[in-house]
């Protein structure tokens, strides 16, 4: 925990490596000091086929899945910091966005818990 899943258009990252994008998101999440360094997980999914607002505009969106318990202010600061680094990396992309979803502790399990 946490998981950051990046989804973006293939055209957007033609001149940037997926690893660089993931590293920037990782570093922004780590800088938030909300998570233990070894717990942060980042993945990326690149789409060739998509429609954005009725056309094929570039986009990048991050889905942040974190354990419940952070304040609204903490989540907003985290989201803003990640969007800022991506906006700086992709200044011409019309869509750079993120949302954060809370995992409930009830019902969550990983292998160390069984």
TrEMBL record:
CDD domains: CHMI. Keywords: Isomerase. InterPro entries: 5-COMe_2-OHmuconate_Isoase, Tautomerase/MIF_sf. Pfam families: CHMI. Gene3D superfamilies: Macrophage Migration Inhibitory Factor. GO terms for molecular function: 5-carboxymethyl-2-hydroxymuconate delta-isomerase activity. Its EC number is 5.3.3.10. The keyword Isomerase applies. This is 5-carboxymethyl-2-hydroxymuconate isomerase. It comes from Tenacibaculum polynesiense.
